[in-house]
Write a structure and sequence with these properties.
binds pyridoxal-5'-phosphate; alpha/beta; 2 domains; Aspartate Aminotransferase, domain 2; two-stranded parallel ribbon; 7-stranded mixed β-sheet; 343 residues
């Protein structure tokens, strides 16, 4: 049985062309600073997002952790969204390893934050807020986007308070695509940005943290401390470079597929999808009529894998390995299963 894996965009496999590039990659020892492919990737990644420098790290989680450890000292506060990946899915590394307090601002359903709540964190005398963290796209809020105007407004508040802005941009190229802008304009008011090669860009592994030369130089020392400095990492940097050069333009296809899937699902009685939240490559499904956990199991029995990252909700994510033809197959199976369940 062929599998349609919609659990995440992290599940895509490196293409044959990408594997060819990996095979021929030039490598050195990046801990000693002489891996040419990593250097090339860092320079190119920084340029694409309009920052001075970049640091290659194994994962998005580590990029965020290093960002927070660099922005904050022990006892300082980082402000994060109530639905942020940093808060829910990164093992609370910043508090555990860095003694960093996470101040929480509520994300509304569409991911937006209340500006007054942000301001009150900065005015509070209980803590020193050193960094305001945004997530774009916002995974647990449906893959929704934060427009540049909102980033500018929030950055203004943070900067006035003497704090920095970090964007967890694991899927920043999806955000830029949906907003029809380029990443460097979108993140121009943020001090630091992390993004992942192993999600919509289709590389097997790797993320970068980007920012000023000075910031990245400090972050490089912290990467060593947390065990993220790698040796012949050119072998994976080559795949990331390939992804940067070849897989950004095609991201819009995933968004078209996601929209078609979402629209098809909304036609099914018993299935609820908020189309307003389908802005990029994610679809969140809920139901008042059926138990979505049973739907998830039945879909798996039919070779369709979906995830559940938010309670009572299923998530489907489109990516490089989901061709257009799979969309109808998924809609049809959800329809059959739901009909059987409702009776
Ligand atoms: C928004 C967001 N940030 C960070 C990460 C962490 O990336 P990684 O799984 O590479 O640690 C993810 C992973 O899905 C994510 O969705």
């Amino acid at each position: 049985m062929s599998v349609i894996d919609l659990r995440s965009d992290t599940v895509s496999r490196p293409s044959l062309a990408m594997r060819e590039i990996i095979k021929d990659s030039l490598v050195g020892d990046d801990v000693l600073g002489d891996d040419p492919t990593v250097k090339l990737l860092e320079a190119k990644a920084a340029k694409v997002v309009g920052k001075q420098a970049a640091l290659f790290v194994p994962s998005g989680t580590m990029a965020n952790l290093i960002a927070l450890l660099t922005h904050c000292g022990r006892g300082d506060q980082a402000i994060v969204g109530s639905e942020s990946h940093i808060l829910h899915h990164e093992g609370l590394g910043a508090p555990a390893l860095g003694g960093i307090h996470l101040g929480i601002v509520r994300n509304q359903k569409n991911g937006r934050m209340n500006i007054d709540e942000i301001e009150s964190h900065f005015k509070s005398e209980k803590s020193i807020s050193k960094v305001m963290c945004l997530e774009n796209t916002q995974n647990r809020c449906g893959g929704t986007v934060i427009p540049q105007s909102e980033i500018t407004e929030i950055a203004g508040i943070a900067h006035n308070a003497g704090a920095s802005v970090h964007i967890d941009g694991a899927r920043i190229f999806n955000a830029a695509c949906a907003l029809e802008t380029d990443v460097s304009s979108l993140v121009q008011d943020a001090d630091t940005l992390s993004f992942c090669f192993s999600k919509g860009l289709g590389a097997p592994v790797g993320s970068v943290l980007t920012g000023s030369e000075e910031f990245i130089s400090s972050a490089r020392s912290i990467r060593r401390q947390v065990g993220g400095a790698m040796r012949q990492s050119g072998i994976i940097a080559a795949a990331a470079l390939f992804a940067l050069e070849n897989n950004i333009e095609r991201i819009g296809i995933d968004h078209i597929n996601a929209r078609r899937l979402a629209e098809g699902l909304t036609q099914i009685s018993g299935i609820d999808v908020d189309l307003n939240l389908v802005q990029t490559n994610m679809i969140f499904i809920s139901s008042e009529k059926i138990d979505v956990a049973i739907l998830q199991n039945d879909l798996a029995d039919h070779g369709i894998l979906v995830s559940s990252t938010v309670p009572n909700t299923l998530r489907m994510v489109t990516h490089l390995d989901i061709p257009e033809e799979s969309i109808d197959v998924v809609i049809e199976q959800v329809q059959k299963t739901t009909e059987n369940m409702i009776g």
